[in-house]
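hey can u check if this looks right to u? its 377 residues, i copy pasted from the old doc so theres a chance i mangled smth
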Amino acid sequence: MAPLDLSDFDLQRRSDAREILRQAGTCLQNPIMQAVLASLQGKALILDRNRQAVAANRSLLEELGLEGSSSIQGYRPGEILQCSHVREGLAGCGTSEACTRCGALLAILASQAEESSIARECWMTGGSGGHQAREFACRATRIRLGDDPFTVFVLQDISAEKRRDALEQIFLHDLNNALQGLQTWSEILGHPGVAHDRAIKRIQAITSRIRQEVRCQRVLLDAEQGTLTLHQEILEPVTLLQELSGFFVGHPKATGKRLHTECLSLLPLYTDRTLLMRILTNGTLNALEATPVDGEVRVSYDLEERHPTFSIHNDQPIPVQAQGRVFQRCFSTKAPRGRGLGTYSMKLLGEDYLGGRLTLSSDADSGTSFTLVLPAG
């Protein structure tokens, strides 16, 4: 499929209310269209030439808590589903910079241009709370009723499927990190003159870490099945930071770089050790990967307004155009191609499982900081 030139479309143009009502009548009074809406699997909208809804199927209306289509008529898909980027555009859904990458918009426009059925995937953040992330398989099909062109737009929520796939990749990603460290220390152990006691301790520590990774994956699978019970315990922040530092001793990504940890509060925290260490390890690894030789990564712990707070900082900024996508699954700022799972898993585990809040701040003057604020004990 050839890339679309969005300049060929007037993305801001809208139909007026009278035209919307006329087209809605054309659709809802047509027996063929009624049968189409009744038979579609998933959430479906009938859109006019300007991507505005004139009708919806029962599945979508029930999710929105609506009795009929009149409440959504004239609105575009992102406006109906409360996409967070709607407010960024000059004319709502489809007009922001982020919309140029939206699979739903691209499917609809390609369907209009090619008079065919086009399938894409769409990542959408929004919902009533403004932070719910969902992934959809969407299909746009161009049809005509008389002289009026319409688009049948169908969404299938594939968030759970994608989430399970991502969790599997996260597990393999983190297991590989641990195995890298194990291989490094195993090779060091074979060098003459090496302090064997130190190498053995590091191998034992990494082996323990691998066991934790396996347990953590079991925890995440239980969470997907709704049977997760977190193993929360009282943790000493100094011990956690020491364990984090130890993990990166001899790690290939830390070669020639400094990892500085600082415990600004000695008060303990109450959370799941395995999930927290995975978040801190992934965040520190990402920071080290972004840091040049002779550079420094700083990890700190403090208690802010009774909330245990971890911060991971490096001096390299993330490009402004990439910051809004950092927490998306499989998005990476690394060249030529990164895994894009580290920051995604930090957000997933820190917020969905530990109940905290993970934020990013990044600019050319201050560098980049990821801050995890956990619930107050």
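The longest helix spans residues 159-189.
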